[in-house]
Amino acid sequence: MSPQRGPAERAPPRSASHRIAGDCADVIALICIHLPLRPAAANQRAPLTCCGRTRARPGAGPRPPGGAAAARGGGGGAAMACGGFACSKNCLCALNLLYTLVSLLLIGIAAWGIGFGLISSFRVVGVVIAVGVFLFFIALVGLIGAVKHHQVLLFFYMIILLLVFIVQFSVSCACLALNEEQQSELLEVGWSNTNSARTDIERNLNCCGFRVFYQNETCAADCLRTLHCRPCAPIMEEYSGMVLRFVGGIGLFFSFTEILGVWLTYRYRNQKDPRANPSAFI
């Protein structure tokens, strides 16, 4: 039997390496307690284990009621953000409603002009009404395609709108690029080719003749009674520049809305309707 140690006898002191190892173990255990580790699986709500110690996950506990619904609601809000399916659909519908109002305005102006006798040329009225009906047809196709997310209608709407943009942009730039000499030549050609438009101009502007007034020519202006009539060319040239700038500016504005409509249609056509049947083709 080994001799028993006396009360005065104690264990030998630990070496420096033993003390350092013990301190390191305490530090590692402390780090493991406060380290935010993840569980093994993404959907697993298991407690965290580190260095043989188990602790509860921070914030873990019974999920509040309506958490899944709140998550789904957040996803719905993201879907409603601008650039999503609903935003593209609403923008395209609003743009086509604008085109519908413009087309009805054109048809109404033509009917008002011929009804009050401001325009006697049926050719001019026919052109304005034809443009209004064509624009109304395009807007109707785009509106139906946007509401139903119809791939074929959206494709034809995009192609027609692109062609209209090319023509309208070219005409608008030509109107803005005409100088005074070209405007005078254009007015003279129009004066010589249309008798009904000539009558309207003489009656509304109270002038007779284009460059020179001849007393023996027929004129619809009231100034013919006094035989003191101005020629129509200076009056028309005074307003032609302003009219061409106005028409060119309006045409450029609507041409940019048309290219915006082409881009919106292309984007909306390639987006997936979250409520649609994935097996449906159209």
Automatic annotation (TrEMBL):
Alphabetized GO MF terms: calcium channel regulator activity
Transmembrane segments: 97-119, 125-147, 154-179, 246-266
Name used for this protein in its record: Tetraspanin 13
Entry keyword annotation includes Transmembrane helix: yes
Keywords: Membrane, Transmembrane, Transmembrane helix
KW Magnesium (keyword) present: no
One GO-annotated biological process of the protein: regulation of calcium ion transmembrane transport
Localization, UniProt: Membrane
Membrane topology summary: Multi-pass membrane protein
GO cellular component, one term: plasma membrane
